[in-house]
Design a protein that fits this description.
By secondary structure, this protein is of the alpha/beta class. The chain is 45% helix and 13% strand. It is built from nine helices and six strands; from the N terminus they run E-H-H-H-H-H-E-H-E-H-E-H-E-E-H. Helix 3 crosses helix 4. The relative contact order is 0.18.
Length: 206
């Protein structure tokens, strides 16, 4: 295997707790566990979907919810979210195998790069949708990374936390692995589900 294509937020970096709390906090000053779970089921589809759905359900403007979401990014400049459990071990295993750690993300480049820099994550290349690429589940970002690095589709795998991540990878011909969130039901066009990034270590250590 010559490359691992990562999703960023929610996969490589554990951004969900901050985002979920921020959106729930924009709805009420004292979010319940039930509300946090409701928010989590929506953010695992996408932040935009969560914002529009929550606004309609709870009578809060999308602008307020978007402002709460954007505030998390400002907070991360000085207090970045943690690296996902097992991610550093997997990043290191990929590099020890002389393979590439690549990122395909919907996040704006400045925001994405600031997270990577703050957490000192050794990424070899990154494609960001706002740079002019279609968002997942469109496979354009995955195909661009394959093209840049002359990677055959059978020499790369992808990992993400949303069904769209897996659909994008598989539309490009790359095997996709879904990192599941306990208690959050997700549909994906694959039975390759993992509960820990460490489950991918054997692919780069054998």
């Amino acid at each position: 295997m010559r490359a691992l294509i990562w999703d960023l937020g929610g996969t490589l970096v554990d951004t969900y707790p901050d985002v979920d709390r921020a959106l729930a906090g924009a709805l009420t000053a004292h979010p319940t566990a039930q509300l946090l779970h409701e928010v989590a089921t929506l953010t695992r589809i996408s932040s935009s979907h969560a914002i529009s759905t929550l606004a309609a359900r709870h009578g809060v403007s999308e602008q307020e919810l978007r402002a709460a979401y954007e505030a998390t990014k400002i907070h991360w400049r000085t207090s970045p979210p943690p690296v996902a459990d097992g991610a550093r071990d997997l990043l290191e295993a990929v590099h020890r195998a002389d393979s590439l750690n690549l990122v395909a993300t919907h996040r704006e480049r400045q925001s994405a790069q600031s997270l990577l820099d703050a957490l000192e994550l050794p990424i070899d290349d990154m494609v960001c949708a706002p740079d002019g690429f279609a968002r997942k589940p469109d496979p354009e970002m995955i195909r661009e990374l394959l093209r840049r690095h002359s990677l055959p589709v059978d020499q790369a795998i992808a990992v993400g936390d949303r069904p769209a991540d897996i659909a994008a990878a598989e539309a490009a011909g790359v095997r996709g692995w879904l990192l599941v969130t306990p208690g959050i039901p997700l549909e994906a066009p694959t039975d390759r589900r993992i509960s820990s990034l460490r489950e991918l270590l054997p692919l780069f250590t054998s």
